[in-house]
Amino acid sequence: MRIGELAERTNVSVRSLRYYEQQRLLRSSRSSSGQRIFEPASIDRVIQIQELFAAGMCSTKIEELLPCFDAAPGERTGMLDQELLKHRQRLEYAIRDLQRARATLNDVIDNAHAGL
């Protein structure tokens, strides 16, 4: 399928798909006229990439992990689980820090209103 069809089927912009290809997250072949041609499996790959971006991962980390997703479950090295769990832990720390910052800001707001 061409890039426009992939964009339509995944609800991802053509620009994003080109970026994914540039970052080696997505692969295509070229037609004789030079147009990008994507395999049907690219739909699932784009959805997977979108999920990892939504989880806060950077393209470098996603590129590193994608081959692990492609391996058969018995052939995975455990790196995938380790990296996903580490990322989840970083998110949990960030959430905790943001909750503390919100609580502190709430105190500042309450104190500012009390002084009025």
What does this structure look like?
The chain is mostly helical and 116 residues long. It is 67% helix and 3% strand. It contains five helices and two strands, in the order ααββααα. The protein has a two-stranded antiparallel ribbon with strand order 1-2. The chain is elongated. The mean pLDDT is 92.
Task: Please summarize what this structure is.
The chain has 116 residues and is mostly helical. It has five helices and two strands; from the N terminus they run H-H-E-E-H-H-H. A hairpin with a 5-residue loop joins strand 1 (29-30) and strand 2 (36-37).
**Cα radius of gyration in angstroms:** 21 Å
Q: Going across the major beta sheet, what is the strand order? A: 1-2
Q: Whole-number average pLDDT?
A: 92
- The DSSP helix count reads 5
Strand content: under 5%
- Residues in helix, %: 55-70%
**Anisotropy-based shape:** elongated
Q: Which series of helices and strands comes N to C?
A: HHEEHHH
Weakly predicted, low-confidence segments = none
The secondary structure category is mainly alpha
Q: How many strands, what sense, and barrel or not for the largest sheet? A: 2 strands, antiparallel
Number of strands: 2
What's the N-to-C terminus distance? Answer: 64 Å
